[in-house]
Amino acid sequence: MILSYSKPEFVDLILLGKKIHTIREDAPQRWKAGREIQHWLGNPRNVHAKNKPREFLKGVCFSVQSIKIECMDRSNWGIYYRVWIDGKAVSCPDCSVLAENDGLTSDEFSLWFLKGQDVFVGKIIHFTDLRY
């Protein structure tokens, strides 16, 4: 299955083993352990894009975990949020590790998933055997 990325810096982070999972909505429950992953920079269905989409790696989904990210408060200093993985609350230090393993800072993480919404529900698609 195709995983496309809009941030070019994700390519190097994945190739260097620093981005070890991605978080996506998955309402149809398509992602499962053992599925092939085709990592693309850009959307391969958008062949007319200014920067041509390209596949940069093939891999396998090691495992999938459910994730819920909820905005608890918004202020001038940022977004205070809580995370649940497989229904269990995640501590603040572990949220920083989660964000880093997804290729983002804590601030980028909250803006990425909670921009324009108060709750994000999705799946962590693991590229390694790490689980939270």
What this model shows, in words?
The structure is a single chain. With 132 residues, the chain is an alpha+beta fold. The chain has one domain (2-126). Helices cover 20% and strands 39% of the residues. It contains 3 helices and 8 strands; from the N terminus they run βαββββββααβ. The protein has helices spanning 9-15, 92-101, 106-114; strands at residues 2-5, 21-24, 36-41, 54-60, 63-75, 78-85, 88-89, 119-126. A hairpin with a 2-residue loop joins β6 and β7. It starts with a strand and ends in a 6-residue tail after the last strand. The relative contact order is 0.25.
Uncertain regions spanning at least 5 consecutive residues: none
> Given the C-alpha coordinates, what overall shape results?
globular
What is the strand arrangement across the widest sheet?
Answer: 2-8-5-6-7
Order of helices and strands: EHEEEEEEHHE
* Estimated radius of gyration: 15 Å
Strand content: 35-45%
Task: Give the end-to-end Cα distance, rounded to a whole number of Å.
Answer: 23 Å
User: Structural class of the helix and strand makeup?
Assistant: alpha+beta
Largest sheet: 5 strands, antiparallel
Total helical segments? 3
Rounded mean pLDDT is 94
Total count of domains: 1
Helix content: 10-25%
The total count of strands amounts to: 8
